[in-house]
């Protein structure tokens, strides 16, 4: 698999199980790009929704994408701490167009004190029926939620002490 080069600017695209484009983040600077993971940074970028709406993010964010785990993590840097929004979805793929993944509705919001909340379970159940998710998908995603919660409780990966701060400093360097 190709992977984006450090310092390059990429688009991030999420899709739904039926192949429909769900959401596009216009520009993310690649801070680390390997075949295993991509770490990116952005600040006040445009996001395009599939229904035509367009909005701008409110704060700087560090994004973590894995080629092996069924989730990605966005660390949003706010005045009162780092909030994490974790999307349950396929491991990423990358082509010259964009970094891409399939979003499977379930999300985990993690607060600065490392408490968390599982979101959008109703949306998952609805889309599971509408899009005829394969039976094994629910087990894969529940395992991913368990793995994600373990990472949060152990402060592993993007939840580790200093991770967001380190990559945010790199982002500021590349952004100039």
UniProtKB/TrEMBL annotation:
Enzyme Commission number(s): 3.6.1.15, 3.6.1.6
Source organism, top-level taxon: Bacteria
Listed SUPFAM superfamilies: FomD-like
Keywords, in A-Z order: Hydrolase, Magnesium, Metal-binding
Catalytic residue positions: 23 (proton donor)
All residue ranges annotated as the DUF402 domain in the record: 18-156
Top-tier EC class: hydrolase
UniProt entry tagged with the keyword Hydrolase: yes
GO MF assignments: magnesium ion binding; nucleoside diphosphate phosphatase activity; ribonucleoside triphosphate phosphatase activity
PANTHER family: PTHR39159, UPF0374 PROTEIN YGAC
Family membership: Belongs to the Ntdp family.
NCBIfam families reported in the protein's UniProt record: PRK13662.1
Protein name listed in UniProt: Nucleoside triphosphate/diphosphate phosphatase
Organism, as annotated: Salisediminibacterium halotolerans
């Amino acid at each position: 698999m190709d992977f984006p080069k450090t310092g390059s600017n990429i688009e991030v695209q999420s899709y739904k199980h039926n192949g429909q484009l769900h959401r596009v983040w216009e520009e993310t600077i690649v801070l680390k790009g390997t075949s295993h993971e991509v770490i990116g940074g952005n600040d006040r970028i445009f996001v395009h929704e599939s229904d035509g709406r367009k909005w701008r993010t409110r704060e700087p964010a560090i994004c973590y994408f894995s080629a092996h785990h069924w989730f990605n993590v966005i660390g949003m840097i706010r005045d009162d701490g780092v909030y994490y929004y974790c999307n349950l979805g396929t491991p990423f793929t990358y082509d010259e167009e964009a970094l891409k993944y399939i979003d499977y509705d379930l999300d985990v919001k993690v607060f600065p004190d490392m408490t968390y909340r599982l979101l959008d379970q109703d949306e998952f159940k609805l889309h599971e029926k509408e899009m005829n998710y394969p039976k094994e998908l629910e087990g894969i995603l529940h395992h991913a939620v368990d793995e994600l919660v373990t990472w949060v409780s152990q402060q592993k990966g993007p939840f580790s002490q200093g991770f967001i701060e380190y990559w945010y400093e790199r982002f500021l360097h590349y952004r100039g």
